[in-house]
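Data deposition worksheet. Section B asks for the primary sequence of the deposited chain exactly as it was used as input, without tags or linkers unless they were present during the calculation. Section C holds the resulting structure in token form. Section D is free text for depositor observations; keep each observation to a single sentence. Incomplete worksheets are returned to the depositor.
Section A, Depositor: J.P.
Section B:
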Amino acid sequence: MGWRATSDVAGFLAVAGDFLRAERARHTVMLSVTESLLANQPVSQPRHGAGTAADPDKSPLFGWWTDNGETLPVMGAFMHTPAFPLLVTAIPAEAAADLAAKTLNGRPVIGVNSYGETAAAFAAAWQERTGCQVDVHRRIRLYRLAELSWPDPRPAGAPRTATEADAALVTGWFDAFAVEVYDAADADQAAAARDMISYGGVTLWETDGTPAALAGVTRQVAGMVRVAPVYTPPELRGHGYASAVTAEVSQAALADGADEVLLYTDLANPVSNSIYQRIGYQPVEDRVVLTFSGQFSGQ
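Section C:
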């Protein structure tokens, strides 16, 4: 068995794309992020992630695992965008340990996002190599839209698609969301906002002409979209705006041809979990995000 890694996102998808699309819901984040990376690369540049050869630790890295040492069949995959924890598909414990011990040797990794056994195996190997402390950052649940139900009663206001004129507002709300959920608060939210606005992926719920909540959706890939993020400023919560804007983007995604609409929730937040279930989302599976701290220098 063995891992192969590359910073070439197009090359990664050429090898691992069929594996990811075969279970598109389970691999929604990897599929949507790689789709955005492809969409944002200058035509004149090689199709690799952000960063440079002189600064490889800031470049996204991708890899696939086979149990026979050959290129195919792909049995697992990972994606590492340095502002975020390592994202790993379901793989055997020995493959997770090998990924930590060899493939990512010397690369700064702040945590791992995967299924329980895979995350635990990777974290144990990473801890052995770096001396880090491992903590549970978040337990998350994937939901899939079944039959959409609009909030009843429907809150005051109406939706509209965000434009470039809303970029500052959207960036600020993306920043606030990241800080609130302790999720890559140092990532470039301005770039994320501009990108999502560019393809009509941000919807605002307005009341009396004033934005009250937003919901974003990823680009459609493999017939699937994911709703993220959903944010309402604290002072405007409790009025049903988040439910309404989520229902709006979910309905729009279906109208645009998506046959699968997904979202993740933090299991520690019972309010969001109940809201999404009330509008028609059903649980699919759970994952865990572990964080690493106190690593030896140079690791």
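Section D:
Helices lie at 9-22, 28-39, 93-103, 116-130, 167-180, 189-198, 241-255, 270-278.
Residues 43-54 have pLDDT under 50 and may be disordered.
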